[in-house]
Amino acid sequence: MEKEFWLERWERAEIGFHQNEVNPYLLGFGQALSLAEAGEVFVPLCGKSKDMVWLRQHGCTVLGVELSAIAVQDFFRENGHTPTHTNTEKFECCEAEGIRILCGDFFDLSQADMAKVSAVYDRASLVALPPDMRERYARHLVDILPSGTKILLITFDYPQTEMQGPPFAVSVNEVEALYSKYAEIQLLAQEDVLEQNPRFKQRGMTRMQENVFVLTLR
Fold first, then answer.
1. Which of 30, 125, 150, 201 is most exposed, with minimal Cβ within 10 Å?
2. CA distances for 134 relative to 4, 65, 79, 178, angstroms
């Protein structure tokens, strides 16, 4: 999936993936990230997520990465902040009130960028990627994160033949295949959410499940 796909989605305001409220799984399982001790929480492919505000309110500094400058600008504007802007070779950095977003490509992140990170919140990143990119994504993520980092991961699982992603179907078995070499994996919750998503049911989907994991990198 090319970068242009996501840039065009933001330009056209086709952002059905954006949630206007804090994600209920973050509310229910956010403490699995040991937020009281967490220094910086990383939110990959962060968009303009309200979840970053919640994380900041719970005492963490927040680091996001986002391809779309529109999403970054909207986030700070909608939350009443005027960010400072600095530039590096790979990213434009926008920062205000303990939330820093790097505008650029996730795959350009380095270990130096992640040096202060102790937790990751992935609600909309892994499931946004097609199968051929997910292994590359997971490998790059674990390569740049410090050991001991905790990852709160939320995935969808449904018959992929019934709907084209994104969001893509990512099963429990795939999460284990992607991460078991690098992390301890704990499945925290599995929820049947088809009835809560009538637009998917109307498209003929017969099953939709959300899975919540906490991963601890070795």
1. 201
2. 18, 17, 31, 8
Q: How far is CA 163 from CA 28, 60, 61, 69, in A?
A: 28, 36, 36, 29
Strand order in the sheet with 183-192: 84-87, 92-96, 99-103, 61-66, 40-43, 117-122, 150-157, 209-217, 183-192
**Other residues' Cβ atoms within 10 Å of the Cβ of residue 19:** 16
Q: Which two tokens stand for residue 6?
A: 């996501």
Question: Structural domain boundaries of the chain?
Answer: 3-13+21-217
Q: Please check the confidence at residue 1 and state whether its pLDDT lies above 70.
A: no
Classify 3-13+21-217 by CATH class. alpha beta
pTM: predicted TM-score of the whole model, two decimal places: 0.95
pLDDT tens for each residue of 81-124: 999 999 999 999 999 999 999 999 999 999 999 999 999 999 99
The single-letter code of the amino acid at 19 is: Q
Answer whether 74's CB lies under 8 Å from 13's CB: no
Is the pLDDT at 183 greater than 60, yes or no?
yes
